[in-house]
Design goal:
This protein has 498 residues and is mainly alpha-helical. It contains 19 helices and no strands. Helix 7 packs across helix 8 (172-189). GO terms for molecular function: transmembrane transporter activity.
Length: 498
């Protein structure tokens, strides 16, 4: 994934707090919140002050663009585990599904990443240039729910695994709270601290994943015992969502990079940084569920993914427990990003929300997902599968709308001829948003008629499969939005001129 480095939080950001004018800072500059002594003191203590304001070109000096820590984590293993647990795919078919659906999802997400340096804007603010201020607010709401949903799965899984280090000594609730608090601290300080952690954390975690591969193979991957119902469509939608789930936040972490960095370089580095670690770890999760030893089967049945991983490491006794602790804490690299972007998305709801410092919304998100994790701690697999499926639906139409706006209307020589970035927070100069909202509605309709979930099967989804249907939700959401957005947007531009 693109490196999430924020290196201008020193003198330049201090100038912003003290009221020095900043091009493109909009109404968030010179506000009471920016000049409060309390906020300035927090900045002096290291708390990041910047929120969703546009980053001017002369304040960007980040050069690091390589990071894969956020996906070399236990949470990614749990997605691969669903292949056999819920959708009864054999390991070869699960592997093929992860590789194919993952490639599509990664390509779409990598496109969104290229817009960060071009605009200097956070991802949810970029949506205003296709769907207007109202549409951008709708996307911000969806993304808040998305990041909090990811965070819920992280704290539950991390808590489960902490409880598995020494069974019976740490309650699951306590484990969830510990993961939540540890995720909050770096986000409260800001991304300068997060940057260093994320840049290097993948190295020991990669070694740990190799240990799991080796110990799992020694225990014996037995493909002959796997149930083969082959629900590729539903699992493919979940895999797609696990990749495109980074789409609504990926520009948050490279908008401080110079605008002249080639888009191809951003695309390639994002693709490699997402695709390789996610595929590597999701396939590991699918492989671990093929171990037929009764001890491993019981560990998974009683302790979920955390229990299964603990059993895999059990031959190493005390050393295995130490590695299990590292794996439990690996969810922090993922959850830090969820927590940080949730705060930014709340600010992107509108000016009243942006006036409140980001670290307040970060704390608010922590409280919400920790409480939700405690409440849903016994239903992790259901929460994860349903959440990722729904995530795949809305990210599909969100990405195609932004993509079509960029290539059809904002390209040089296009109808609008580019982005007027000074308009990022001016509703009267942004698109009205009717086309974007309507196209999103058509995308949602496509998802509804094509989905196949435990709680609802759409008419087309039912026709596509046998007993339980086949999930076509994200494909139809993508297609419906892709077909309807260009003509609607053309009409909107013709009538409004923006």
């Amino acid at each position: 994934m693109v490196d999430k480095s924020f290196s201008d939080s020193g003198i330049k950001e201090k100038a912003s707090i003290e009221g020095v004018s900043e091009e493109g800072a909009g109404p968030y500059q010179h506000t009471t919140a920016d000049t409060e002594p309390g906020r300035a003191i927090l900045f002096e203590l290291g708390v990041e002050a910047r929120g969703v304001e546009r980053i001017p070109e002369d304040m960007r000096d980040v050069t690091h663009i390589w990071n894969k820590s956020v996906n070399m984590v236990l949470t990614t293993i749990s997605i691969g585990v669903l292949a056999q647990q819920l959708f009864t795919l054999t390991l070869p078919h699960a592997t093929a599904t992860i590789l194919c659906f993952g490639a599509v999802g990664t390509a779409l997400t990598s496109f969104i990443a290229t817009l960060g340096p071009k605009t200097g804007l956070r991802t949810m603010v970029i949506t205003r240039f296709s769907s207007g201020y109202v549409g951008g607010t709708i996307y911000a709401i969806l993304n808040i729910l998305t990041q909090l949903g990811f965070a819920v799965t992280c704290v539950i899984l991390g808590g489960q695994t902490l409880a598995s280090v020494n069974p019976g000594t740490l309650p699951l609730i306590a484990g969830i709270v510990i993961i939540g608090v540890l995720s909050l601290i770096p986000c409260f300080i800001g991304y300068e601290m997060i940057h260093y952690y994320e840049r290097y954390a993948w190295m020991p975690l990669f070694v740990v994943m190799l240990f799991l591969w080796g110990l799992g193979a020694k225990a014996g991957f037995d493909l002959s015992t796997e149930i083969a119902h082959e629900d590729v469509g539903c699992f493919g939608g979940i895999v797609f969502g696990s990749f495109t789930g980074w789409g609504p936040v990926v520009a948050d972490y490279n908008c401080k990079m110079p605008a002249d960095i080639p888009a191809k370089k951003i695309f390639f580095m994002t693709f490699v940084g997402l695709y390789i670690p996610i595929c590597f770890v999701e396939i590991l999760g699918a492989a671990l569920t093929s171990i037929s030893d009764p001890a491993y089967v019981d560990a998974f049945a009683n302790g979920g993914t955390g229990g299964l991983v603990a059993q895999v490491l059990s031959p190493w006794k005390g050393g295995g427990k130490f590695i299990l602790l590292l794996i439990a804490l690996s969810v922090l690299t993922n959850n830090i990003a969820n927590t940080y972007s949730a705060g930014l998305s709340i600010q992107a709801l509108g000016r009243p929300f942006a006036m409140v410092p980001r670290f307040f919304w970060t704390f608010f998100g922590f409280v919400v997902y920790t409480v939700a994790g405690i409440a849903g701690r016994q239903h992790f697999s259901d929460i994860l599968s349903n959440f990722l499926s729904i995530l795949g639906y809305w990210t599909a139409w969100f990405i195609i709308i932004v993509l079509e706006e960029h290539f059809l209307f904002r390209r040089p020589g296009g109808r609008l001829g580019g982005y007027n970035l000074d308009d990022w927070d001016s509703p009267s100069r942004l698109p009205l948003g009717v086309a974007g909202v309507l196209a999103a509605g058509f995308g949602a309709a496509g998802a509804v008629v094509g989905m196949a979930e435990v709680w609802y099967i759409g008419p087309l989804g039912r026709m596509a499969g046998a007993e339980f249907g086949a999930d076509l939700g994200f494909e139809l959401a993508f297609g419906f939005a892709a077909v309807t957005y260009p003509p609607l947007r053309w009409i909107e531009i013709r009538l409004t001129g923006r």
